[in-house]
Design goal:
- The protein is mainly alpha-helical and 254 residues long.
- It is built from ten helices and six strands, in the order ααβαββααααααβββα.
- The chain has two domains: 153 residues, no CATH class; 80 residues, no CATH class.
Length: 254
């Protein structure tokens, strides 16, 4: 699967043009800023999109230039398949995928099957792709387990949101990646093949991968909410640090 993503803007002038195109989405202000610097400082940035996949290759031959600030394994690390353990309902699972699929069984009154997905369980010791299959319709039918679809539809997103938030908060490498995405105004898209009939967690994009054509991108949205929240929380601290640095430079000049 091709992982190349369109080049990000690299000059102030190009960034300003992007900001102007996005202006109608991010502000109701009628009076245009007086100069490019004011525009860049006052308006939110239209984020670049980083695509990640459940089966993203761990290593690449070289970094995509516009994401040179990220570690090579960043797309894979954001996946629910990445080897970052999480806890759900006081039980430990080897990946978000294991925990998410176990939640289906726990919600269906089959704690015994959910336990198989835990760290050390017969499914917990296997790859996350196996966990995903074991939490699918076929496995439920084989085990004669009935899933309350309406209830799961309502609760699946909050469960996933909690698991991803925990993954970010409890693993330094994931927190570092999300922080870099926030600092560099990057959002995420969980990419899925265009041929898939149901694209709830992911989405597919146009040929140059600049626009979502179909799909909810729910997993990407969860990360984007965390990215935006982190950016908002870090903005005052970053501004204070920048002001202190400028003050120090002025003092050194005298």
């Amino acid at each position: 699967m091709e992982d190349t993503i369109p080049a990000v803007t690299t000059t102030v002038a190009e960034d300003v043009q992007t900001l102007k195109r996005c202006r109608s989405e991010v502000t109701q202000e009628d009076d245009p800023p007086r100069d490019e610097e004011r525009l860049a400082l006052l308006l939110p940035v239209c984020p670049t999109k980083l695509l990640f996949y459940s089966k993203t290759k761990e290593e690449k031959k070289e970094k995509d230039k516009q994401f040179a600030f990220l570690p090579l394994n960043a797309p894979r690390a954001l996946s629910t398949f990445s080897p970052h353990a999480v806890t759900w309902e006081s039980k430990r699972y080897p990946t978000v995928e294991h925990a998410f699929q176990a939640a289906k069984y726990a919600m269906s009154g089959r704690a015994d099957v959910a336990a198989l997905f835990e760290v050390g369980g017969t499914i917990g010791t296997q790859e996350p792709a196996v966990a995903k299959r074991e939490g699918g319709k076929g496995a439920f039918k084989t085990r004669k387990v009935l899933l309350d679809v309406a209830k799961w539809t309502t609760e699946s997103v909050p469960i996933m949101r909690g698991l991803i938030q925990q993954k970010v908060d409890s693993h330094a490498d994931i927190y570092a990646i999300v922080s870099l995405l926030a600092e560099n105004h990057v959002h995420t898209v969980h990419y899925e093949n265009p041929g898939r009939s149901c694209q709830f967690w992911g989405a597919n994009m146009n040929a140059d991968r600049t626009e979502i054509l179909a799909g909810n991108n729910e997993l990407g949205k969860i990360y984007n909410d965390i990215i935006d929240d982190l950016r908002r929380r870090c903005r005052p601290a970053a501004a204070a640090a920048d002001a202190a640095e400028k003050k120090q430079r002025v003092a050194e000049m005298h």
